[in-house]
Amino acid sequence: MYNQKVIDVFANPKNVGEIADANGVGTAGNASCGDIMKVYLKIEDDIIKDASFETFGCAAAIASSSVATEMVKGLSPEMALNIKNSEVVEILEGLPPQKIHCSVLAEEAIHAAINDYISRKNNESKTES
Ligand code: FES
């Protein structure tokens, strides 16, 4: 069902696990398959220095998480918000139609983690003022 690229990334995923001092954490889930993806971001000086994930899901979800966390490293949070699941699919050289939603989870989890970072930052500035 999967192409070789997806199989390779799934077999050797990058950025697996938690970042203990992450300052942006986001979760996305798909109700129909029950898969869940959690993304951790460490953002400093407006740059995503590190990104990781914990995914309880299928091979496509794990491969998508690996690709998406690699893509956002070195980007500003604003730029990372522009990441689309179609770019994840492109890097994976395609996913079966019934597995496209797995790449959507990666996009959503990245967005959720960035939004978490932004709201933490806003809360900090409120507390400081
Ligand atoms: Fe649902 Fe892959 S089958 S995330």
Give an overview in words.
The structure is a single chain. By secondary structure, this protein is α+β, with helices and mostly antiparallel strands. It has one domain (4-121): Sufe protein. Chain: A. It contains 5 helices and 3 strands; from the N terminus they run H-E-E-E-H-H-H-H. The protein has helices spanning 4-11, 59-72, 77-80, 85-91, 100-128, and strands spanning 24-29, 36-44, 47-56. It has a 3-stranded antiparallel beta sheet. Helix 2 (59-72) packs across helix 4 and helix 2 crosses helix 5. The longest helix is centred in the last third of the chain and has 29 residues, at 100-128. The protein is elongated. Bound molecules: FE2/S2 (inorganic) cluster (FES).
Strand order of the largest sheet: 1-2-3
**Shape field:** elongated
Helix coverage percent? 40-55%
Q: What name does CATH use for the topology?
A: Sufe protein. Chain: A
